[in-house]
Amino acid sequence: MESLHYLLMKSHSVMQRNIYSEVRKIGLTSGQPKILDYLRDHEGSDQKTIAGYCEIEPATLGSILLRMEQKGLIERRQKNGNRRSLFVYLTDSGREVCKKMNSIFSQKDEQAIKGLTSEEIDILKKTLTKICENLDGKD
After folding, report:
1. Does an H or E element contain 86, and which?
2. How many domains does the chain have?
3. CA distance 104 to 97
4. Residue 123 sits in a domain of what CATH number?
5. What's the Cα-to-Cα distance from 13 to each of 5, 6, 46, 75, 93, rounded to whole Å?
6. pLDDT tens for each residue of 66-111
7. Residue (of 50, 76, 72, 69) closest to 61 by Cα position
8. Is 3 left (phi over 0), alpha (psi -120 to 50) or beta?
9. What angle do CA 121, 53, 16 make, to 5 degrees?
10. Which residues contact 71 (CB under 8 A, 6 or more apart)?
11. What is the pTM of this model?
12. Do 88 and 65 touch, CB atoms closer than 8 A?
């Protein structure tokens, strides 16, 4: 059997390749799907929070957000007079693309778990969460 690190890297690569082949068809580029996915439930987040959650460098996030803003998917604006930070919101167009993207995510999730029991899926999710916490140094 392959090593754990290899299987984790391969699983990530295969899932990412499958997802990106589909999200490109709806006009999204690398990095944009996970930002849209985050914003779906966390509209009005500041860029630092988005970067941390999405595991993207702040400078890289800025350029991704600029392209998303130019496409009309998001808007950045001040909140409560805070002039230091810009907060990110989905536009109506961004919400529509987000719905399409989530459909792709659901299809790929179903493909990935085909043949697994609900108990195996639950164990897999818990195990992957623990692995992430271990690697991030969280206990």
Report:
1. strand 82-90
2. 1
3. 11
4. 1.10.10.10
5. 12, 10, 29, 30, 29
6. 999 999 999 999 877 776 778 999 999 999 999 999 999 999 999 9
7. 50
8. beta
9. 55
10. 27, 93
11. 0.83
12. yes
Would you state the structure tokens that stand for residue 126, as one six-digit string? 């818990």
- One-letter amino acid of 121: I
By residue range, what is the domain housing residue 129? 4-136
Q: Which amino acid is at 37?
A: D
Q: Which residues of 80-95 are buried (b: 16+ CB within 10 A; e: fewer)?
A: eeeeeeebbebeeebe
Both tokens of residue 73?
């998917």
| SS3 per residue for 88-102 | EEECHHHHHHHHHHH
User: CB 40: neighbour CB atoms within 10 A?
Assistant: 15
